[in-house]
Target: Arginine biosynthesis bifunctional protein ArgJ
Amino acid sequence: MTSPIPAGFRLGGFHCGLKRNPNKEDLSLIVCDEDTVAAGVYTTNLVVAAPVVWDRARTPSDKIRAVITNSGNANACTGEQGDKDNAEMAGIVAKQFGVSADQVLTMSTGIIGHNLPMEKIRAGLEEVFQRLGSDESHFDTAARGIMTTDKGKKVASRQCEVNGKPVKLIGMCKGAGMIAPNMATMLSVVLTDAQLSPQQAKEILSEVTDNTFNCITVDGHRSTNDTLLLLASGKAGTGEISGGALEGFKAELQQLCEDLAKQIPADGEGSTHLIEINIEGCANREDAFRIAKTVADSALVKCAITGGDPNWGRIVSAAGYSGVKFDPMGLELRVNGHLLYQKGTPVKFDEKTVSQSIKDSFETDVTLRFTEGDTKFRYWSSDLTVEYVKFNSEYRT
Amino acid sequence: MTSPIPAGFRLGGFHCGLKRNPNKEDLSLIVCDEDTVAAGVYTTNLVVAAPVVWDRARTPSDKIRAVITNSGNANACTGEQGDKDNAEMAGIVAKQFGVSADQVLTMSTGIIGHNLPMEKIRAGLEEVFQRLGSDESHFDTAARGIMTTDKGKKVASRQCEVNGKPVKLIGMCKGAGMIAPNMATMLSVVLTDAQLSPQQAKEILSEVTDNTFNCITVDGHRSTNDTLLLLASGKAGTGEISGGALEGFKAELQQLCEDLAKQIPADGEGSTHLIEINIEGCANREDAFRIAKTVADSALVKCAITGGDPNWGRIVSAAGYSGVKFDPMGLELRVNGHLLYQKGTPVKFDEKTVSQSIKDSFETDVTLRFTEGDTKFRYWSSDLTVEYVKFNSEYRT
Model:
């Protein structure tokens, strides 16, 4: 089997001491062989970390040469010193590869409000420069280097054909919601050897994000650091991509991002279920999104799934307060395929069977069908457990 | 001491069998001696219970003669039969007092999706008719009759002078968020002997609600049954009220509603803290409301307070994703009076002292000061505990 790593990238990770456990990487470096197209999607939080400010100003671009990420410290709410430290981190990487600091993107994740321990990072970078490579093991080390409270690395890859050439996509992400005290939070990088212009990369990344990374929730808390980067080396020899070929590539990217995104609520702190919310029959995407998000964020819905309770009242009433206008008499609700609610009244169903279907499977399907149109939409959430509350209330005390 | 019950009302409660525990009242009746002014504020949920549809169509009014409430069953999502049962309940009360069913308001709270056991209600109503009175004990029985999972009755009263006459206000409410499986949820009735027109009653009730009952959250789940009624008998002999006298009365009503409203998150399922969120320096009320609500609904903020953790990062980042534009460098955060965050950077503070102040008090004060204007706003929330999750995930299973 050939390497799943797209041509044009080398990767590496290292433990420099930001995390206490010496077996856990806390630096992750991706180096591009040549100037590379990069686009980003960033948190909409008004309070943003230094690396988000840095990357926003430098993407989209066709001159990116590296992405350096540290975990264990978010470099958020750190004032001017935070900006200085971030620039220094980019500068050290730039110097090593003989490029400008503006060609280096940065990401940070971890505790908020503490300045980066730059001595550890300086020493760690020297080490990580020695450990770069383009094998799957290098990719895995880099993927572990962006983790915080994740149970394990979150990666996905795909191969497809574009303009008759084999193209590779591979991605890593981290996050389990803004779950841990001040952990900040969702980071992801996708690499491909397809050829994209900066504008193409930006556009398809935004579109794909709207249907994948923007459709997940653990606790509804949007962090200060969320970043998703797409790097396209163009090394696959596809030439320019447009029309159907671009659509095809976008579909592959979307599937990859969905694979990555779903791993986040699946690993939501303390979660015992991945909840997939399917919305059908809405008038438009915005309505479908609002209903899905309201149901997905409801603590009562989450608790019901935790307990294997086919509690349709919580789901129907959450849809009802989403702010979207719909005909309540047209609403149909299914959980794991079982019809629970129709035409404004509960349906007779075997509670034990439905409850057992929730308990027996890690994934729970909640499908809400409306009669306002034909827009479909999907959203993913984790359930809410005693362990989530314990973790988030007892962490510091 | 004179009775706190305003003139013109008789009340009573009875256990008819909707609740299992025979010591818990599940019917509550308020009867007006004469035609009485009444106004209501109702849930904004699109999925609404039969009594909400009924009352909405009949308020404001100056002809109301009774309010009949049952607890233990919400009569929500019960289709046509639900409407019929609700009308029958109003009709039985109307017949007893020789008035029209349109002069009787209804409220229901309890499990969603089950038809009312009308035989029990019919028999119970005959009993409650025999138990009416205007002593405090009658009021208390009626107040217990609207409870579901509340730990105890929630009541408040005030006396003031309007146009030189002594005026009484007394209120009852129930609810602990939409906390229990399908419990639906917030009900409240306020009685006064002041003289108001239906339009006045409607307007001041809406205004007061915006600053009291609309400023509380337990889990952000808006129910299908929320109802707040104001009944004004005019028996205090105030004559028409306007200008400063009306403002004065409104201030008293607001204080009463605040006293009632705060009892709901204070009794939030499993809650160990009442969190008061004070917003200062916003450009307008809407911005202040959005920030307050976002912080109040954050599971991470709630968990931090549960654990006595002065976790300013969670509070600041919740404000940041509220959707309100503000200068992050101008934000100042205090918890129980201790400054934790200022000018975009954390402030040095003694974590143990602040933590202890959270642990030592049932009430936690979170004050966020902005630099966009001079609008102030308050919001109340409960914390999130292991008991909340246990209760809501293990109830049925």
In short: The domain at 274-394 of chain A is CATH 3.10.20.340 (Ubiquitin-like (UB roll)). Chain A has eleven helices and 15 strands.
